[in-house]
TrEMBL record:
This is Putative branched-chain amino acid permease (Azaleucine resistance). It is a multi-pass membrane protein. InterPro entries: Brnchd-chn_aa_trnsp_permease. The keyword Transmembrane applies. The keyword Zinc-finger does not apply. Pfam families: AzlC (PF03591). It comes from Saccharomonospora marina XMU15.
Length: 276
């Protein structure tokens, strides 16, 4: 199975460059370059925060999900509970469930392809794939972005991890801003929707209020209550309005029926007079 997968992977990489336009390949290359830079900051901050050298590299290979890795390390570096860090990372990665439905048909057949393709399922690869006009181009864009980012991300993390053994003050280089900057960049496109904005603001308020009093990591989990509050608010705003409209519609319908009946009676009376 390994030999078959290796041959298939080589053929896939060859077809990628024949299928995609230069513009798409250029955009994928720029995303990979950006990913490697963010990876350097991730590795540097992780090691300079006192975590072991192998941790960022292991996370990048096994998890390969930037947002989840940032959250996990951020909680651990601040002295949080490892269970809370794992749960927070898993909750962030629940977005991969709809991703799987969206791109599942372009991963190919075979258990090895499905496993590797699922592991490479990141936001950028899915976005590039869905932007293509046909299935062949979608498949090529997905694998090109996924494989490229996996290599560049892990290379950047490794370089950053070794740099973290030398750099003692990441704040002086501005690397401390990498955690909130990356998470904010992932969140901003979704804040155009009112419900998402309400959930984000409510969750942020809960996390900020609980941070001075609760163990590290727990405020992040409690911030998920913002989703429930937003859903409840949306339900309260929508349901009464819908019920009221339905009731008005029924009343209007009754009025129309009565009016139709009156017209019918008038017509009948008029017909009787004519007949007389």
């Amino acid at each position: 199975m390994t030999n078959t997968f290796s041959v298939s992977s080589i053929n896939t990489m060859r077809s990628i460059f024949r299928t995609l336009d230069r513009e798409v390949l250029r955009d994928i290359a720029l995303v990979c370059l950006t990913g490697s830079i963010v990876g350097v900051s991730f590795g540097t901050i992780t090691v300079s925060s006192g975590l072991p050298l192998w941790l960022p590299m292991l996370l990048s290979v096994v998890v390969f999900a930037g947002a989840a890795q940032f959250v996990f390390v951020g909680i651990m570096a601040s002295g949080g509970n490892p269970i809370a860090a794992v749960v927070a990372g898993l909750l962030i990665n629940t977005r991969h469930v709809p991703f799987g439905f969206a791109v599942g048909d372009i991963l190919g057949t075979g258990r090895a392809r499905l496993l590797v393709g699922s592991h490479l399922m990141i936001d950028e690869a899915v976005a590039f794939a869905l932007a293509q006009r046909d299935r062949q181009r979608r498949r090529a864009a997905y694998w090109a972005c996924g494989i490229g980012l996996f290599c560049c991300w892990n290379l950047g993390v490794a370089l950053g991890a070794f740099a973290g053994t030398v750099v003692t003050d990441t704040d002086a280089l501005g690397l401390d801003a990498a955690f909130p900057a990356v998470l904010l960049a992932l969140l901003l496109p979704s804040l155009r929707e009112a419900a998402t904005l309400r959930a984000a603001l409510t969750g942020a308020a809960i996390a900020v209020a609980g941070a001075p009093w609760l163990p590290a990591g727990l405020p992040v989990l409690l911030a998920l209550a913002g989703v429930a509050v937003s859903l409840r608010t949306t339900s309260l705003r929508t349901t009464p309005a819908g019920s009221g409209d339905a009731g008005d519609g029924d009343d209007a319908g009754d009025g129309d029926d009565a009016g139709d009946g009156g017209d019918g009676e008038s017509s009948a009376g008029h017909g009787s007079r004519v007949a007389s």
